[in-house]
Amino acid sequence: MKKRFTTLFAAALICSCVAWGQQTLTIPEPVKMSAPAWNGKVKPGVGVKTIMLKCIGQKYAEPTIYLDKWREEKGLELTYKYKDAGNERVPAKYNGLELNSEFTGGDYPIYVYGDTYDVNQTVMIITDRECQNVKYSIDLSSWAHGPKELVDPEYTRISVGYAMVENGILYIGHWHRTFADSSQGKNGYITAIDLATMKQLWTTLPLTCNSSFDITGNSIVCGYGFTDEPDFVYVVDKTTGKRKQTIKVLNGPDDIVVKGKRVYVRTYSYDYLFTFK
């Protein structure tokens, strides 16, 4: 089913950590992160109990790139920003790279730098909530390309699509924005990183996530889909990276939010509402 090449664009967010009249943050030398496991690398074992989603609503929604408006209409907090990211404290550039995305859905704000808008994102910084200090600085340049690419690498360049920190673990959704066949299926992941050790804990199987995601309890709710590819919502065990539930949807998920006991999913042209116990 059809899914647009670029998702979650034209978002608007007032950052929760505005610090007027203060000096720009100093970014320490980033810690270089090794490439993720392109075939996926989940933790062994049964993991923990996760939620089970039940669909209670589905309706057609006119396709739009303005997903910030969708969140506003649903009364959902906006936790990403791809345009005009940052504030007075966050440098607009780092070593020639431009600040091009911001994620505020977790414990700390996350900012990502790249050479162009939403492409070739290579440096991520995580600040404290007040944007007074940079807590972590990470070099993700080794994540930019998978092991095999069948088309122009510019089209299969993998970028950070969404990210959040919870309880010392950084969860990064990373994918490229064209057909999975262009990289022999090596696309659409979430990788978990222990910020205390900077070690990768797990990487989901490919084709698990190219949407925003949200966390509730031990569960990550995410989705994957693209034009003429299968489209699913997944519940992932956040302790192992394993898929625990797979739900077929009519086209590719773009934006996913958990609010209370409900999960709101916006796909290319449908609104879904799920509940769980």
Which terms would index this structure?
1 helix, mainly beta, 277 residues, 7-stranded mixed sheet, 39% strand
Can you describe this structure in just a few lines?
This protein has 277 residues and is mostly beta strands. It is built from one helix and 19 strands.
Mean pLDDT figure: 89
% residues in beta strands: 35-45%
Assembly category:
single chain
Number of strands: 19
Describe the protein's architecture and organization:
- This protein has 277 residues and is mainly β.
- It is 3% helix and 39% strand.
- It is built from one helix and 19 strands.
- The protein has one helix at residues 67-74; strands at 31-32, 54-60, 80-81, 93-94, 97-103, 110-116, 119-127, 134-139, 159-166, 169-175, 189-194, 199-203, 214-216, 219-224, 232-237, 243-248, 253-259, 262-267, 270-275.
- Strands 1, 3, 4, 5, 6, 7 and 8 form a seven-stranded mixed beta sheet that branches.
- Strand 17 and strand 18 form a beta hairpin.
- It is globular and about 50 Å long.
- The chain starts with 30 loop residues before the first strand and ends with a strand.
- Residues 1-21 have low confidence and may be disordered.
Helices and strands in order, then pairings?
Blueprint: E1 31-32, E2 54-60, H1 67-74, E3 80-81, E4 93-94, E5 97-103, E6 110-116, E7 119-127, E8 134-139, E9 159-166, E10 169-175, E11 189-194, E12 199-203, E13 214-216, E14 219-224, E15 232-237, E16 243-248, E17 253-259, E18 262-267, E19 270-275
Parallel strand pairs: 1-8
Antiparallel strand pairs: 2-19, 3-5, 4-5, 5-6, 6-7, 7-8, 9-10, 10-11, 11-12, 13-14, 14-15, 15-16, 17-18, 18-19
